[in-house]
Amino acid sequence: MNLGISKKYLALAFVAARACFFQARKQSGIESIQALEATRTILLFDPEHLTAANHRKRHLLHLFSSHPSSTFQTALRRDLLVITSILTSPLHRQSKSPTLWHHRYWLLTTYASDFPSEPKEISVSSPPSHIPLVCADIDAVCKAGERHPKNYYAWQYARRLISFFTEGAYACCEPKSTASANASNVEKGYADLMGTCVAMVLSWSLHHPADISGWAFLGWFLRCSSKDITLPSPSRAQSTVSTLAVVKCVGDYAVRLEQAKESLWVFLRTVLADGTVGEGGTEEIIGQLKDAGRKSDHGSGDCMILKERVRRTVAWVEKNSIRGNWGDTSHET
């Protein structure tokens, strides 16, 4: 199981932890540390054990209502670490657990709403500081996507998370008296967040071209973001590029490596047809794809596969685009 423990002994540990959990909860209630610790083994073996997940929620709510803020903050971060370790483990079912992804979302949204200013990383009054928190979650999603390909539960969680931070948290930033003063800071934080996450997901998708879930998320992300995205570079300097440049990067990658993965071409045709890159951008990329198709006329078998991919992509965009027609594709490719 790549955990250093066999499934047989993990199952035995689960049975023991389950018995311990119910006994400790019966004796000490929601405050039982023994019951809380037992839930880790329970969820590692059975990620859909709703009773164990709910116990962890109730324990956190209890700490929030009856303990100092620092105690709650420590417990919350520890809980997030436990959930992350299970979701990114090499176990097959765990990385695709709807119960655990929902629990993680609950943790972060509760964290943001109950502590809008104390935990600096998600304070909307200083947006750039929350970027590491969101990026850490996108990184966890990418790792879970590697553990379980086409992990739609993980990528759907990422959509909900990004929507929360860009719509929910930003919508209720500051009192009206300070809203105007923070407007530019919020806008910068939004651009930095979008750019950093786009760079992470783009890199992941290019390394996993057959994973439709990652490409679908990237397409959704580009539609949600502005036309200009601030992308980080290895030198830690930042450069502003357009959504069009991101899509062109994918197109160049597909043509240069003669990619035949259907998922990548589905991404390209979708963002070209739905207006993500704008009318001019679509025409430009379509022209480049046609040129690539013509150059592959007398190539090898892989070149002929690329030509067919280009032909089908251009025809699909022509048929389904919100703009309309780019000419007769049957003769140009």
What does this structure look like?
It contains 14 helices and two strands, in the order H-H-H-H-H-H-H-H-H-E-E-H-H-H-H-H. By secondary structure, it is mainly α. The chain has three domains: 1-89; 126-166 and 183-226; 241-333. A two-stranded antiparallel ribbon has the order 1-2. Strand 1 and strand 2 (238-242) form a beta hairpin. Helix 6 runs parallel beside helix 8. Mean pLDDT is 80; it is low at 114-128, 169-181 and 326-333.
Main features:
single chain, 333 residues, 3 domains, two-stranded antiparallel sheet, 2 strands, 71% helix, elongated, disordered C terminus
Number of structurally distinct domains: 3
**Could you give a short account of the major beta sheet?**
2 strands, antiparallel
Cα gyration radius (Å): 24 Å
Q: Tell how many strands the DSSP assignment holds.
A: 2
- Unreliable segments of 5+ consecutive residues: 114-128, 169-181, 326-333
Instruction: Give the DSSP E fraction (strand runs of 2 or more residues).
Output: under 5%
Roughly what is the average pLDDT, rounded to an integer?
80
Name the helix and strand elements from N-terminus to C-terminus, one letter apiece. HHHHHHHHHEEHHHHH
| Cα distance spanning the termini | 49 Å
The number of helical segments is: 14
Relative helix content: over 70%
By secondary-structure content and strand pairing, the structural class works out as mainly alpha
Family: Belongs to the protein prenyltransferase subunit alpha family.
InterPro entries: Prenyl_trans_a
Protein name: Protein prenylyltransferase
Keywords: Prenyltransferase, Repeat, Transferase
